[in-house]
Structures are given as structure tokens and as C-alpha cells.
TrEMBL record, chains A, B:
One of its GO terms (cellular component) is cytosol. The keyword DNA-binding applies. Coiled coil: none annotated. Residues 148-221 form the HTH crp-type domain. It comes from the Bacteria. InterPro entries: cNMP-bd_dom (IPR000595), cNMP-bd_dom_sf (IPR018490), Env_Response_Regulators (IPR050397), HTH_CRP (IPR012318), RmlC-like_jellyroll (IPR014710), WH-like_DNA-bd_sf (IPR036388), WH_DNA-bd_sf (IPR036390). It comes from Chelatococcus caeni. This is CRP-like cAMP-binding protein.
Length: 235, 235
DNA sequence: GACCCGATTTGATCCATGACAAAGACTCTG
DNA sequence: CAGAGTCTTTGTCATGGATCAAATCGGGTC
């Protein structure tokens, strides 16, 4: 468990440019753990003792409101660092991360973070870059939620998923992990009913292909046009 | 212009714990500039050559959508660092920051950031902490936009404003800078009409007191209850 | 194959809130 | 004080989506 093959982080952008020896050094404090589909890596409210890098699999990060509604904050794809915004400062994880397929994550104790960045200052700026990117994404999402209507939000969400986790098929691009209408609804602030109706309409127009926990985007460009068009522009 | 009184940053949390000599050192690369009410500090899309700390005043940060709608991302209060998420990595500012009252900001060239954090590593983790807090706030807002209806969102927004920029009055707490119904609408993803109606209703119940570009919260606790109550809970 | 369970589809209805319109109210200026 | 410009209030109407309800589908299990 404790000894980790350094090659697993060879293509983590966060650690790019470090030598193999340095990789080994970083992994000294890390553990690799397997997380079965559906199981949480950490839960909202739990003490934030660790930060993580996803090696294999896909995670869904979601927040739970006081009255029990869920919102999907994002999906984590391999190579990403997560649970780190809190490593410095917050006591508890602000969200829950669960595996949508069997996954492998590297775990470091939060306590080693200062030591790691002391040894590799580039790590700090890369982490900051990652967090900055997420901040922008979050702001973009706020703007979208404020100004776009449901169909456009769903279009954007799908395009983002395709970009982050698209698997090329001859028919189009498939989202590489199981995803339900409910998930999409929780990403876009609507209901699974509305998402279902929208996808059905798109399917009729040949833009996407549906399925159980499965979405294939056939015409990303058409979807993009749909996402960008101003609310009143459709005839 | 170039020489800045070190005392101005004495109570910037980002620089807390540094000696006066260190303050002077940091300010060597900085300029202080005055920004008149209504003028921009930087504009969305502009090359991000600088990062900033607000010394006096208040700024509104907003994003403009392709079709011309505005969304208020946040208000900057004195002591906060801003425009830094981009200092590392983005070329252009992702939003526009304008002064809502006459303000004073410190300006550093983005290029000195690596040098500054090399000299004071604590700066990196504090900045990261600040960005992390903003990320959480943004996520909270996404959750709110997804799950709460307008009245609750407006309640939350007001409470946040009161917390960040509240000025204690004997009648209640006043938001310390001029703010329009339109501003609140752009913070909560609704229209100024709806905000006006909501504030009128609250005013009738004695929860707030309105005015031109002015909002006084009389009963923060009542507002809080309103903000938290689940959608269907009101009789 | 029969059954079960979660995911999806589709219909019908209702309502919060956006859109449009118009009339005050306040502030500043000359 | 008149006039202009900006904010704010309030009314009416239209509608995008939420909600409620129910059928159907697809996959896995015994």
C-alpha cells in the first residue's frame, strides 16, 4: 500500500518536469488506495486530513444542501489534484467526492503540503494555477446559471463533459463514464425530467444519442451553436 | 506615486505578521493609484499585467456575457487582493473591476509575483487560502443558484454584503457603499423588478429599509431564517 | 423466463418569475 | 425652481420549467 510505483504520476501535469527520483521522493508520503464504484473518497463535513490525486477512474464531486438537495460541483478526471483547496485553511471538506467507476487515488496527509511546496516551489504555483482555473470555471458557471436558460446550460455542460472526459467513437464522442439524466440535472440546476425532454428533442434532431447512463454527442458543433445562441434567437 | 506609505498595508491580512521593513520592501515594486467612482481598475479581456490590493474604497467585479448581460461576481472590500488568480497563468482578466466609490489600490506588476513569493513563502499560502475561500464562495453560489428561489438568493446576497461591508447603524446594518436594485439583481440572477418587489415586501414586514442606492438590514436574523427556510416551508 | 429495480420517457397542470409598460421619486445641475 | 437623468415602484400578462403522475424500458438475478 505504502510503496507506489512512481510511473503512476508520470503524466500528472501537476508533477510534470520532475525527475523520476523526485517522483519517488514525493510518493514517500503518499498511499495509493482503490475506491470501488459508488464509494466516497471523502464526505462533506469530514475533517480534511488529506489531499488527493486521481490516478485512474472518475469521481463525482457534489454538495448537499441543508434540505437534502444535491448539486454536482464537477467531475474529477485522472491526473487532477483535489481536496487541496482545503488542505490549507478549512477544517472540513466542503463537498463529497464519490467514485462513479472503480478508481485509484493517491493520498497525502494535508500536513505534508507545506513541506512539499517548500521543497518544490513550482508545486505551489501549479496548484494555485489549478485552483485558479477552477475558480474561473465556477464563475463561468455562476454566469451561466444567471443568464442562460436550461437548454443552453445543458448544452454547455455536455460540451464540458465531452472535453474533459470524451471518448472518441465513430458515431461521435461518448462521455467516458456512466452518467444519468439526474447527474446532468444536478450539474445544470434543473430536474431529470427537463433534461430527459431536452435530450429526447436533441436525439430527434440527430445531435446526440441517448442510452442508459450513457450519452453520445454526435454533433458537438451544432450543440455549441445551441449553447451560444441568445435566448430569444431561436425561431 | 511610486513611494507608498507602508502603513497603508499594515492591516491587510495578506501581509499580516511582516515587519515594517518587510512592508517597505514589498512596496518597492508597487504603485498606489486612485480610482474615481465609476472608473475601471481593469477590464475584462485586457492583458493581465498587474495584480492589486484594495486599500480604500469598494470595487464591483463583474463579467459580461457575449450577448451583453452583466453578472456581478463579487464586491472587493479594503484589504483584499484581487486580479491575482490570473497573475499566474491567464493572459487576460476574466472580469471587469470598477470602483463603486472613489478608491485607492496598490498595483504590482504580475512579473514580480514569483519573486515576492520566493522571498516570503507565507505569501503563497495566504494567497492560495484567499483564492480557496473564493472558490468555495463561488461553489456556494452555484449551489444557491441551482436550488434556491429568488427570494432566498436575495436574502443570502444581502446577508453576505452585510457581513463583508456592513456599517452598524442604530436602526440596523447598512451596506457601506451605494448599491442599486440592479446590482442585487445581477448578483442573484434575477431582474431589478423582482428585487424591488422583494425588498418592498420585506420593508413592509420591517426587515429592511430601502432607499436610493441604499439598503439597511434591520433584522438580519429574520432574513437569515428566510434565506435558510426550504422552498415549500413558508405558510 | 419471470421478476425487480433503477433509469428514462412522456403527459398534464400549475406557478414563480421574466417581460413589458408606465408612473413616481430622488438628485444633481444650471 | 425647472428639467433631465437615474433609480425605484407597481401593475398586468405570458411562459419556461417545476411538479405530479404514470407508463415503459433495460439489465441483472434467481
Amino acid at each position: 500500500m505504502t510503496s507506489v510505483d512512481p510511473s503512476v504520476i508520470a503524466d500528472v501535469p501537476l508533477f510534470a518536469g520532475l525527475s523520476r527520483a523526485e517522483h519517488e521522493d514525493m510518493l514517500r508520503d503518499a498511499k495509493a488506495i482503490r475506491v470501488a464504484k459508488g464509494r466516497p473518497v471523502f464526505a462533506q463535513g469530514e475533517a480534511a486530513h488529506s489531499f488527493f490525486v486521481l490516478v485512474h477512474g472518475h469521481l463525482r464531486v457534489m454538495k448537499l444542501t441543508p434540505d437534502g438537495q444535491q448539486v454536482v460541483v464537477r467531475f474529477v478526471v485522472p491526473g487532477e489534484i483535489f481536496g487541496v483547496a482545503c488542505a490549507i485553511g478549512c477544517k472540513a471538506y466542503p463537498a463529497t467526492a464519490t467514485a462513479v467507476i472503480d478508481s485509484v487515488v493517491l493520498v497525502w496527509p494535508s500536513a505534508v503540503w507545506p513541506e512539499l511546496i517548500a521543497r518544490w516551489p513550482a508545486l505551489a504555483s501549479r496548484a494555485m494555477h489549478a485552483i485558479g482555473g477552477r475558480l474561473q470555471e465556477a464563475h463561468t458557471r455562476v454566469v451561466e446559471m444567471s443568464t442562460r436558460q436550461v437548454e443552453q446550460r445543458v448544452a454547455h455542460a455536455l460540451l464540458r463533459l465531452v472535453q474533459q472526459a470524451g471518448r472518441k467513437l465513430d458515431k461521435g464522442v461518448e462521455i467516458a463514464f456512466p452518467i444519468t439524466r439526474q447527474d446532468v440535472a444536478e450539474m445544470t440546476g434543473t430536474t431529470l425530467h427537463t433534461v430527459s425532454r431536452i435530450l429526447s428533442a436533441w436525439e430527434e434532431r440527430g445531435l446526440v444519442e441517448g442510452g442508459r447512463q450513457r450519452i453520445v454527442v454526435r454533433e458537438p458543433h451544432q450543440l455549441f451553436i445551441l449553447a451560444e445562441s441568445s435566448p430569444g434567437a431561436s425561431s
